[in-house]
Specification:
The structure is a single chain. Helix 3 crosses helix 6 and helix 3 runs parallel beside helix 8. The N and C termini lie far apart (about 80 Å). By secondary structure, this protein is α+β, with helices and mostly antiparallel strands. It contains ten helices and ten strands. A hairpin with a 4-residue loop joins strand 2 and strand 3.
């Protein structure tokens, strides 16, 4: 049976024929409209149902939204990502459709026993590398294999993508992706037998004026243990349930890592500019606080505590004596306490 996926050489030949006028597009359209028959190979039946493919598309649509935001921040350029297609086909058909050389990342999907792969169009990779290294994000040369430095940069970008992919898949099942290696020749990467069915998710990514495809290929046998969890209904239920439970934890964990400047204020005074200019070593400045008074502890721009100054193990410290509660309205107005 002839595969549905065209190779790169076949695509180039087709475009050349259309451009030269040797192929009549109108006649092709009329002929294709007469018969709407899809060839089906009973030796290789579809493994994924339409509902399961729909759930997989939802997972990767969420991934595309995250990728748009993160990549725009990472490379400081306009980036847009969207799911182009979600399909199932034989692994050999997918391999034959890839260009050479290309950029392929071999992935491990923990806890499953096997490998998946992610393929990124070379033009897209070189545009991202150029942008990360200070260029305009352009690539007009001929695709080639990556240098060691370019490979290191690309690996970091792919690993960031995998982090986002884990979050998207986490709404349905706990999966961990790990980058095992990179390859440029698709025929050197055999993650399953040629005639085995694989899931193929193709995403379109625009980086400035450069457009390219990202392909995620996962063998069916790798996903078979979780195939029962892949349904659009399960995705909606898991997504909403996880959001309700996890949003507070994520906010708390994020806030726990926030670093806030703190400073104890020993007191205040007012000096003329002339007095400030006349200060010398050994001069004493009288403050408005007494030695035995509790002083203010400033957190950020506001005084939040009254503390008693002292030392602990030879380092300056303050014992909290009073907590100052602030109304939200007073804080939003920027008032001092």
């Amino acid at each position: 049976m002839t595969p549905d996926v065209l190779s790169q050489s076949e695509i180039d030949s087709l475009l050349s024929a259309l451009t030269s006028g040797s192929m009549d597009l109108d006649s092709m359209t009329r002929d294709s409209g007469e018969y709407k028959i899809k060839v089906y190979d009973f030796k290789r039946p579809d493994k994924f149902s339409k509902d399961q493919l729909r759930a997989i598309q939802m997972i990767h649509e969420a991934f595309a939204r995250q990728l748009t935001t993160v990549m725009s921040t990472l490379i400081r350029s306009m980036v847009s990502a969207e799911v182009a297609s979600v399909d199932q086909l034989a692994y050999e058909e997918f391999v034959n459709s890839l260009v050479q050389p290309t950029v392929i990342g071999l992935l491990e999907m923990y806890p499953f026993n096997g490998n998946a792969l992610i393929e990124i169009n070379p033009n897209l990779v070189f545009a991202i590398i150029d942008r990360l290294l200070g260029g305009k994000g352009e690539f007009t040369g001929k695709p080639r294999e990556l240098t060691d430095i370019e490979k290191t940069v690309t690996e970091r970008v792919i690993m960031r993508m995998l982090e986002l992919l884990e979050e998207s898949w986490g709404t349905v099942v706990d999966v961990r992706f790990r980058l095992e290696g990179m390859e440029s020749n698709p025929f050197f990467v055999q993650i399953c037998p040629p005639r085995d069915m694989v899931l193929l998710v193709i995403m379109k990514l625009n980086v400035g004026d450069v457009e390219g495809m990202i392909s995620l290929c996962i063998p069916y046998f790798l996903m078979e243990p979780i195939i029962g969890k892949l349904s659009s209904q399960q995705w909606f239920v898991s997504s909403s349930h996880k959001d309700d439970e996890g949003v507070r934890d994520r906010i708390e964990k994020t806030l726990d890592r926030v670093r806030v400047p703190m400073a104890m204020e020993l007191g205040h005074t007012i000096l003329s500019l002339a007095d400030v200019y006349g200060l010398e070593a050994g001069d004493v400045i009288k403050l408005d606080e007494k030695v035995e008074s509790n002083i203010g502890l400033r957190v950020g721009n506001h005084i939040r505590f009254k503390v008693r100054p002292g030392t602990v193990e030879g380092r300056m410290a303050g014992e909290v004596m009073e907590v100052i509660h602030v109304e939200a309205s007073d804080e939003s107005e920027g008032g001092e306490n």
